[in-house]
Amino acid sequence: MSERNVGVVIVAGGSGSRVGGEELKQFRWIAGKPMLLHSLQTFMAHPRVIAVVCVLPMRYAGDPPPWIFQCDVDRLLVSVGGRTRTESVANGIDDLVDEAQVVLIHDAARPFVDTATIDRVIASVDAGHATTAAVPVVDTLKEVDDDMRVARTVDRARLWRAQTPQGFTRETIVRVHREARARRLTATDDAALCEQLGIPVAVVRGDERAMKITEEADFARAEALFTLSS
Fold it and tell me: Is the predicted pLDDT of residue 75 greater than 70, yes or no?
């Protein structure tokens, strides 16, 4: 078996305000279990993973929902979310065990991450690259002006849609967040932080099923997708 040296930070510290309702988006049930539990169990099942940190909002970090412990609790840690996604990720990295020398960062809003994608990201980090999973853009893209008229058609040949997990050596991602904090940088993902700091990011193939659940309608789409792929 390969050495267990991969730590995972699952970012579940947001309020999910675009979905609405009292229940946190990442705690809602989808395809038979809470959204967060899907990715938590998938990463726990990987032979390289030594620890998983779930970053939760402060009011839940001290008293997580009981279903979160349906995994190897000896490898589970809970961290407190920050004011931004960048802060939440940094908190999760700080709480990882020292043995985690490869760090994967994953959004809880992508519950259907698959093992093959995780393998590709880890292999790319092992080869020395900061890495993001992504899928190629297949739709024709239109740039519009302020009046919602088409200004131009954008060439999609080199465009990819970023997903998670994103992977880094421990040394790289710690340095990225230290410099981002010093320069007060934030970003919607950690690959973008690397870009702002001039660190090249490699792309590996993700999976169309690893959709991000953002709005209420996405729950029905995800349920249908899960049913079709099961």
Answer: yes
Tell which residue, 188, 213, 189, 214, has the closest CA to residue 18.
Answer: 214
Stated pTM of the model:
0.92
**pLDDT tens digit sequence for 52-66:** 999 999 999 999 999
- Let me know: does 140 contact 150? Beta carbons within 8 Å: no
The amino acid sitting at 105 is: I
Question: pLDDT (tens digit, 9 = 90+) per residue, 25-42?
Answer: 899 999 999 999 999 999
List, in sequence order, the alpha helices (H) in the chain: 35-44, 58-61, 85-94, 115-126, 170-183, 190-196, 216-229
* DSSP output for 136-172: E--SPEEEE-TTS-EEEEEP-TT-EEEEEEEEEEHHH
Q: Which two tokens stand for residue 42?
A: 């998938």
Annotated domain spans of the chain: 6-134+161-229
Assigned CATH for 6-134+161-229 = 3.90.550.10
In whole angstroms, what is the distance from residue 151 CA to residue 123 CA?
40
Residue 10 CB coordination number (10 Å): 26
